[in-house]
Amino acid sequence: MRICVLIKQVPDQESVLKINADQTWIIEDNLVFTANESDTYALEEALLLKESLGGEVVVCTLGPERSGQVLKDALAKGADRAMFLQDEAFDRLDSQGAAKVLAKALGAEQFDLILLGLQADDTGDAQLGPILAEELDLPHVTLVVATEVLDGRLKVKQEQEGGWYQHIEVDLPALLTIQSGINKPRYASLRGIMAMKSKEIKQVTAADLGMGADDLTPDQSIAQLYIPPKTKDTVFLEGSPDEMVSQLVEKLANEAKVL
Amino acid sequence: MGKLLTFIQHQEGKVARTSLEALRGAQELATTLDHTLTAVVFGLESGPAELANIQLDEVLLVQAPELTTYSSEYFVAAMEAVLKAEIPHLLISSHTYQARDWLPRLACRVERPLVSDCVGYEHDGGLTWIRQVFQGKISAKVESSEGLVIVSFQSGAYRADELGSGSPSQRTMEVRLSAVPARVRPGDRFQEAKGAVDLSRAERIIAVGRGVGDEENLTMIKELAKTLQSELGSSRPVVDYGWLPHEHQVGSSGQTVSPRLYLALGVSGAIQHQVGMKNSDCIVAVNKDVNAPIFEVADYGIVADLLEIVPRLQKALEERNAD
Ligand SMILES: Cc1cc2nc3c(=O)[nH]c(=O)nc-3n(C[C@H](O)[C@H](O)[C@H](O)COP(=O)(O)OP(=O)(O)OC[C@H]3O[C@@H](n4cnc5c(N)ncnc54)[C@H](O)[C@@H]3O)c2cc1C
Ligand SMILES: Nc1ncnc2c1ncn2[C@@H]1O[C@H](COP(=O)(O)O)[C@@H](O)[C@H]1O
Questions:
Q1: SS3 A141
Q2: What is the reported pTM?
Q3: Hey, where are the domains in chain B?
């Protein structure tokens, strides 16, 4: 089975975010970046499928220079090769723009399966999977929490709201978006880290894909970022940890009356 | 005057609550823009009861044998036909799991933007969409190019109980979907066997998030839960890591709770968590990041390391119990 996994690099969950001067993006200096959470589960699912069925796992990211690190990490965990779509022309693409670029880059490879995370934790669009499936004319299923390979098709379990699930069959080749918790992502081994150094990371630019600025004009863009104003009057307790705790107990007992 | 369509999601004729919330947003937009408002319903013979007395110009029943249950390929093809025939300025939907599955594909098919998971809009000559980014830590105003825009509204962005009333007319439209390939074949929907923990009845819940840092730290939180006579809840990552079984998870893919006390420890308060707990009577949040979205719903907030707070709270409660 030939599998491609898309991984986006995003700020680490612990990051304290600040907005830049023209309020169009965050200040990236000094931030720690990491692979988007659900993408790490998508990668693990691909590695597990390869281990049971054979084949290869190709990882791909579209992003600035720094994001090459997610490809190295994935190669160290066992992915076979990588594609790095990097070009100034790719900055600030919307989901459909990114999907057009990815479709050009991946289309020729004829993967059996393309896996993505269900949502990138930076912009939170939750769109790229179904859009890329449409661009590549592949069937898709989102929010997958279990996969089983049958003859020429997949049986997957899809998470739905309120504790509901659904089994869905989908013909191969197909595209899935993976929900967190589907497996236990591995850590890279020392051997894996050594092996990574000899694996291929193919650089791809807009020119390589024959795409110019005209193909890449977004239909939606961020006009302004701001810290959401607080609408609730939260009572913040102040002082040392001991003081805050005694105030809390007092308030829970006498104000909220929940003790 | 233009046209505004709003998609109504239903399960066997029962309308999703979030669709009614989005419909309220659509009503506001229709008034602001002086547009007509049509509710689009797939796969029903007659209009759902929930729409019978709602302020709407019409209910459009889109019919085809393939539309009785959800499937992304049929829904995309059907809505593509509707958009072609109706030529609306906006298509509005709620941002449900189902919407996440097919609206992006539709947007790509008709080559128009989907602005997803919006919490509101601003109108000042043009329209600007407001949505959360970075898991709710930052808000964004989003602009789109001229032409049809597809918009999905977050659960809770508008209130269904504020829907204006009226008497919409009804129209049917048949679409032919027999040529659409059935590459995706949905099977039965099911629920997993219920676990032993029923958080919906709990008086007090202590919820742990990723901020607990380490599985071992759960020991002291379990002890605190015992002293406070409360059940243990959690955010999704804590379950994903295998630190607690799924039956403890609170949120859109876990349980919905409304205890008298909800004590959130190291939970950031992403929208998918908030929808499961925001109706609790008293919400306390302990988080070291003052900008964590959990403080948006908290009555009391402590900005501190939970590992410093929990042992002290344990001691204070023990002393109180001893008195
Ligand atoms: C379709 C979908 C469904 C989902 N369903 C659910 C669901 O049902 N339930 C759910 O919870 N999530 C759900 N999620 C995930 C959700 O989006 C968030 O990723 C998740 O809720 C974050 O969990 P968290 O708050 O524990 O972790 P984080 O967001 O990583 O937050 C950890 C918090 O702990 C704080 N912290 C760290 N260390 C300390 C310390 N020592 N002391 C005090 N504070 C500290 C940090 O400041 C941070 O705010 C879903 C997501 C999607 C896309
Ligand atoms: N720039 C990118 N490079 C690689 N993968 C991406 C990129 N953007 C999004 N993805 C993938 O698409 C998924 C959904 O992202 P989004 O639709 O942007 O929320 C992510 O979890 C990633 O797997």
A1: strand
A2: 0.97
A3: 3-187, 192-322
